[in-house]
Amino acid sequence: MTKSIPVAPENTQATEAVKQDYSHQSKPSSHNEWFLYIIENKLGQYYTGVTTSPERRISQHRGLLAGGAKALKGKQPIVFKAVFRAKSKQHAHQLEYQIKQLTRKQKEQIIHLQHLENTQCVTSLFVDEIEVN
After folding, report:
1. What is the pLDDT of residues 68-111, one digit of tens each?
2. Crossing angle for the helix pair 54-61 and 16-23, nearest 10 degrees?
3. Total-model pTM
4. Is the pLDDT reported for residue 46 higher than 90?
5. Cα gap 48→27, rounded to integer Å
6. 49-to-2, 24, 100 alpha-carbon distances in Å
């Protein structure tokens, strides 16, 4: 069975490649991996979130797929600064809460070191080949 990905109507041409990337995937299993991510927008602001699919989520935030955060609308380019593999959904949400309590300077330290206690850093798996500055 093919997974249906909602597409933002104003970006249909730009999403053809993204839709094809997801067309081969089956429904998520109950053993999904969870990730915590920190992204930066064109204003230099950090946004923290959790997901089971960093590729899909950043496509949503960029407006290529429906479902991006309102806080990021119109603030492209958006790039991953850090992505960490969490132990579970609960762990991912706990980490998200903890990160959101930190100062900008503390978040920058996590991004610079690519280290967050009790997690595996997997940023290199999700960083775009060419980041637009």
Report:
1. 888 998 899 999 999 999 999 999 999 999 999 999 999 999 99
2. 160
3. 0.74
4. yes
5. 25
6. 26, 25, 9
How is residue 6 written in tokens?
């909602």
Q: What is the mean pLDDT of residues 56-67?
A: 92
Q: Any idea which residue has 């330290």 for tokens?
A: 109
Give the chain as a DSSP string: -PPP----GGGTTTTHHHHHHHHT--PPPTT--EEEEEEE-TTS-EEEEEES-HHHHHHHHTTSSS---GGGTT----EEEEEEEESSHHHHHHHHHHHHTS-HHHHHHHHHHT--TTSEE-GGGTS-SS---
Which domains does the chain possess? 31-125 (3.40.1440.10)
What distance lies between CA 2 and its chain's CA centroid? 22
Kindly state the tokens that stand for 123: 């940023």
pLDDT of residue 128: 67
